[in-house]
């Protein structure tokens, strides 16, 4: 199992970097989801969960009245629904590279998400996982970062323009060797 988890400050470009890796390696080799910002002019208003196989669903929004809150955002209850779970399961079953962007407080507000990700990352049979994970200290995400086969890659202003090429080359080599 090979897991690449990008980490870094908010708005450092982790999702952009992840999407560049997907484009470089070939989108047909990936499945799962990434999180995209919802913007109103220059202000971030929320987040959408975008499925690589097509479709999207709201994850969080400043105007969402929800008991699940992360900062100023209300998080949609049940976002990790049948559609998202099916996308990830089909990706695993097909042998594609699993994308999970982001493993963070919003996503973990759904009680089914963290156990699924823990099982995925702890599975020795799982092929390649590409994702991002919150930088802040947290018992659950710290445990994921410490799993065998997990590489945590800090994204910084200095490395973010070249890191996608390094990771894409490594993933391509793993695909050629069948690992």
UniProtKB/TrEMBL annotation:
Sorted UniProt keywords: ATP-binding, Hydrolase, Nucleotide-binding
Entry keyword annotation includes Cytoplasm: no
Protein origin, superkingdom: Bacteria
Keyword match Nucleotide-binding: yes
A molecular-function term among this protein's GO annotations: ATP binding
Cited Pfam families: NTPase_1
PANTHER family documented for this protein: CANCER-RELATED NUCLEOSIDE-TRIPHOSPHATASE (PTHR43146:SF1)
Protein name stated in the entry: Nucleoside-triphosphatase
Annotated organism of origin: Paenibacillus methanolicus
